[in-house]
């Protein structure tokens, strides 16, 4: 566990040195442009526009980092053979995976926190005096972070047994599928056999449900998000990540490093 | 029998390949050998012979299809074994965003070295491999030779009892090679066990207590370098100049290789004086006479050739 | 640990993990239902903009939107929600993306035009959609059939309905009965026979499941209407004999007016309301399929 922590810190250092956090400049530009323009194009919904735009940008930027860096976490090290020296040391493979996961989640946390700060700054500029908004926006940001952690875990899992390109495709595919699980569950058609419907239902519970983390509309309208949901979503993300990482570790532990 | 530093029993590694992994390629076949404690052991063989496979099996990067191995009495699947070994990968590459100091510090943390000891140890290692001036430079700017040096440094950083080096001399200039040789001798003096692979035979002859020769995934011979050399007959090489007509020298000249006026010829030691006399009387100018020590290299070439001759048969049986 | 044992452990972890996730998901679903997020948000309502944005993949986008239409309608139908305001913008976008997607026009015009609960109750939008379909696919005669349908059933404009059937009958490949319908409708207006024939034609010619199902329900309702008319006649006879309206179908059987209980097409006995009028039993699944204006307390 201690070793996983060391690996995590090094992974964070790698991300920082590889200028991953530079995306914040892009985010800042988007928020500045939005804050300036919003007053001129929309009347009365300035806060809503800033919130939805900000949350969308946080989500998209985070997803790009989570998928592309997540897939490379282990595969890049296998490719460049930087892993050889490390794995000959007393590091268990699951410790390495956990460390890599933790390191990228740490990076994403820092990155998301910085973006959230920018979002609140932009909000304070256009704000006309509502209090609820802040709390639910903060929860929405937290949910995005949970979602990103789950995406990192999936990317890591795929990169343990397939090529980076396919890993990206699988991760992205699973993410998109995970946004439609409710539709999948309620998919009703006379043309579909009962067996297929049952299968789809089961599948919809097996897939990572990314809809759980979507509270953008509630955040935009400043509706309070119940504390129980925060706890449930945290538990969901933690449990799903644990399952995915267990499978990843099981695969990676048996893998021969060519 | 005392515990061997490295004990390998019937170690075999197949790589599945092809569609659905139905075919397999055997890259190591039933390797059994021992490396005693305090020994410097050279692992020799051409490219693709199975040296790197053996080493990767030992350090747990790949897993054997069959067989077992123990290092210092601990199974290679035992994670605590890793605390006692140092490993230099072949053509090592390290995180290019780190500096040499940071890399060694990272590995020192992984090895659980106490904080106060870490800095001194890292500095000492950098000095030992001659990188103290480049310590603050990111590894992305390192040359191949410098990477090799930092690789050696990380392998011995935690003072392991067994050091496994995969091609430690490759990519180094003569100075670098001497430095690595010095490191190995130093380790030997400190009572460590060193296993290193190489295809530079002179290094092996110079450093090793024993060598193992591996060709085509099979161990072909183990022993002290001179024992192995002793297996081959000795001879003398004669270099001479001769411009005249072949005449009575014809039988001799036909055995020699000619370069312009110069001829090079190898004769058994017993025939040397008779040959020299013959040359002298024919008016040839003898330039040099050298003893041909049958080297590891020849032994090695001999094995490789034997294996090549056998290769088609191996291919068929592989199916 | 042996390999077998570690595999067993892995499967155990997976099983437990997914059981936990299953439980959690149900809890989250329940919690999220209270969040009242606007689920039906249609982000982009401009068909032309979407068409530009989808580059050369507009037909593919149209297919995606079409599945959205079917899902949207199906979900609303399944959960008996009355508000289907997004049906029109979805169809608008779909047919702009792919003007040749025939099924979208046919499906759309039917469910836009019909009154709740099955449709949006906006026949004028249905007609607009069909006219767009006709402009894009002038040779497709069945659009005229659908057009005639809307005029006949929803607007009760029999002159226009007859015109539509007649116009369609001139298109290549049009069935011969199109002309017959045109004549019948212009002559007699709405009759039960004509209605039954129209729905039967839809039922037998269409393969899209929700349209077919809809036609089936309409046919059942028409039969129920005919049954009720018969029952009302018997009820009048009963009242003449006993001096009071019948309380149930069984009353009619008891006095020998009926050989047995009469059931609606889904097998539920009809009932009589307080005024003695025959009705579809509220316990019957058909009951809630009736048009709002046909339902009586």
Q: Helix tally of chain A?
A: 11
Find the count of extended strands of chain A (DSSP E, 2+ residues). Answer: 0
| Strand fraction of chain A | under 5%
Number of domains of chain A: 1
Q: Using the alpha-carbon principal axes, give the shape of chain A.
A: globular
Structural class of chain C: mainly alpha
Question: How many structural domains can be distinguished in the coordinates of chain C?
Answer: 2
Low-confidence stretches of chain C: none
SSE order of chain A, as H and E?
HHHHHHHHHHH
Distance between the termini of chain A: 26 Å
Question: What is the number of helical segments of chain C per DSSP (H or I, 4+ residues)?
Answer: 12
Multimerization status: heterotrimer
CATH class of the largest domain in chain C: Mainly Alpha
Q: What key attributes describe this structure?
A:
heterotrimer, A: 258 residues, globular, B: 319 residues, alpha/beta, Rossmann fold, Alpha-Beta Plaits, 2 domains, 6-stranded mixed beta sheet, 14 strands, 28% strand, disordered C terminus
Provide a compact summary of the structure:
Chain B has 319 residues and is an alpha/beta fold.
Polypeptide structure, described:
The complex is a heterotrimer of chains A (258), B (319) and C (297). With 258 residues, chain A is an all-alpha fold. Chain A has one domain. Chain A is built from eleven helices and no strands. The model of chain A has no long low-confidence stretch (mean pLDDT 88). In chain B, 35% of the residues lie in helices and 28% in strands. In chain B, helix 2 packs across helix 3. The C terminus of chain B is likely disordered. Chain C has two domains: 169 residues, Tetratricopeptide repeat domain (Serine Threonine Protein Phosphatase 5, Tetratricopeptide repeat, Alpha Horseshoe); 69 residues, no CATH class. Chain C has 297 residues and is mainly α. Chain C is flat. In chain C, strands 1-2 form a two-stranded antiparallel sheet. In chain C, helix 4 runs antiparallel to helix 5, helix 5 packs antiparallel against helix 6 and helix 7 runs antiparallel to helix 8. Chains A and C meet through helix 11 of A and helix 1, helix 3 and helix 11 of C.
